[in-house]
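Issue 218. Parser rejects a valid record. Input:
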Amino acid sequence: MLSVTVQHALRALSVLAGLPEGEFMLGRDLAQRANIPANYLSKILWTLGGAGFIDATRGSGGGYRLHRPPSKIQLAEIVGLFERHRSMRSCLLDAHKVCSDADACQAHKAWQEVGECMTRFLENTTLADIAARKGSKHRG
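Output the parser choked on:
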């Protein structure tokens, strides 16, 4: 339901959220720890930095860290950054159609409920809730 880019961004941010406050992580270490190809991660980090989610510092002791506390970053903010046109209103049975109550497919009502549930989850879950803690590894 979420793009690979969003999944990578959430995974990278959850790793950064697990760092001790004020600590930076090198991009190559973040790529390895979050299991994201380095060139793909650099594009994601550029977008996250431009939107004010992370700080980047060059040189010795540099790298990346969160700009705000993870408890202040809702997952919906991240998803919205990368999927501005994301819509659960698209038809489950026809990717070229937008379902509406007036022109509904057979799955419309149930699919609409899935979208509403996902929206609530993204709006009510923070980065702190999914943060990768030291010693934990992503499974999947």
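Fixed in the parser; the record now loads. Confidence is low (pLDDT under 50) at residues 134-140.
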